[in-house]
Amino acid sequence: MPAECDILVVGAGPAGVTAAVAAARKGAHPRLIEKNPLPGGTGVRGLHRVMCGLYPQTQLLPPEPLNTGLVREVVEQLAMRKPGNKPLRMGKVVVLPFDGADLVSVFKALLDKENKNLVSNFRCRATAVQRAEAGIATVTVDDGQTLRPRCVIDCSGEGSVLQLAGVRVQTPDPANRQLAGFTFRLKGLKRADEMVSIHVPYYLRRAVEAGVFPAYVKYTVFMIGDNSEEGYCKISLPPDLPDRDQQARLMARQILRHMADTLPQFQQAWIAELAPAVLD
Q1: Is the peptide bond before 62 cis (omega within 30 degrees of 0)?
Q2: Dihedral sign for Cα atoms in the order 139, 7, 280, 231
């Protein structure tokens, strides 16, 4: 017999975690499933360093978050873990620097706190959907269990349940999509400062103009990590690039070699971590 649940939330990124926790706090009995082993979504898997959409576009720093409730709670919990991470301005947008491990810790604490009403299943994905006249009747997950939710919230980022249900999903034309991203973390930098964030894209653009790298490398950005010996480099790749994951890993190593030959801060640097995949 299918297992009953009030709400099935698919995806444990920021949207999915807060949806499940909010439902549990209101007295519902939600079920959260996530295909990866940890919560956090793209921000964690993609080695992102900043979170946008939390603050108004204001000249005053630090600003108050736009929303109260769980959003403010997450921001406060992140601040407790890294008091030095203050909101900062990037162009016209105010963003919050964060550490991926801290975001995982905050989300796990939120989920654990509501474990009387909330069931969380990681390494678990939807594999089949049976539709009913009024919506979705059942969702089968990859351990063979069938769930009968009263409501489904698809926070997978790719509309996985909608696609399994055969619902028509409108997606942008590949030619008009934002470039996909691949981030890698560097250690062993030598006294890197904020100017390196300007030097890296400048010298990579010059390398593109000289024919050393393909055109998409000119969109690469660099951010200093938690100290002057650590940094994060994000490569933007076109959606139609063949073997993107393999090409991204190869390009990361080529970019590091080029920067080691160009900037003294990179001469002893090495790749400490690669994102698991190119993320759209």
Answers
A1: yes
A2: negative
Token pair listed for 54: 């939390």
12: exposed, middle or buried (Cβ count in 10 Å: 0-12, 13-18, 19+): buried
φ, ψ of residue 234 to 5 degrees: the values are -115, 120
Cα distance between residue 232 and residue 197, in whole Å:
10
- SS3 sequence of 207-261: HHHCCCCCHHHHHCEEEECCCCCEEEEEEEECCCCCCHHHHHHHHHHHHHHHHHH
Length of the chain as a residue count: 280
End-to-end, the C-alpha distance of the chain in Å comes to 37
State the alpha helices, DSSP H only, in 125-187: 160-164
51 close to 42: Cβ distance less than 8 angstroms: no
What's the whole-number mean pLDDT along residues 57-75?
87
Other beta carbons within 10 angstroms of residue 127's beta carbon come to: 13
Confidence of residue 180 (pLDDT cuts 50, 70, 90): confident
- Phi, psi angle pair for 67, to nearest 5°: -115, 150
> Tokens 């653009």 label which residue?
205
What's the pLDDT at 147? 94
Which pTM value belongs to this model? 0.86
Residue with tokens 């204001």: 58
31 pLDDT higher than 80? yes
Contact 97, 85 (CB under 8 A): yes
Task: Pinpoint the alpha helices (H) of the chain.
Answer: 14-25, 42-45, 70-81, 100-113, 160-164, 196-209, 244-262
Contact 180, 277 (CB under 8 A): no
Q: What pLDDT does residue 178 have?
A: 63
